[in-house]
Amino acid sequence: MGSKVDLEKFTGQNDFNMWKIKMEALLITQGLKEDIDPVSKLEGGEASSSKTLEQVAEIDKKARSTIVLSLGDSVIREVAKEKTVAGLWAKLENLYMTKSLANRLYIKKKKDVLTEDD
Prior knowledge:
By secondary structure, the protein is mostly helical. It has one domain (16-117). It has helices at residues 16-29, 33-36, 38-42, 46-49, 53-68, 73-79, 85-96, 100-117.
């Protein structure tokens, strides 16, 4: 059960959508995703209703810590004020979902320029 997952840190320069998919998978393998998913909370899912407030708070802290440890320093500075995993996730999506296409185009252009120099 102690298998190590190597997830590239999200720095703001790499693909947010790909990082998000991998992070969600990591949270699922750690048993943290279901309890932080806003949809399951709104629907009153069994997972959220059978947990005490202390258990939910502990899961939230673990999930938030997992995400923060998978972020680059400059990204952490942008989201550090968010105290809950839901707030952190929403802030990341707000900052980087709309920029994802622009980031991919920038990275592609940067790679093209580097290969032209060779």
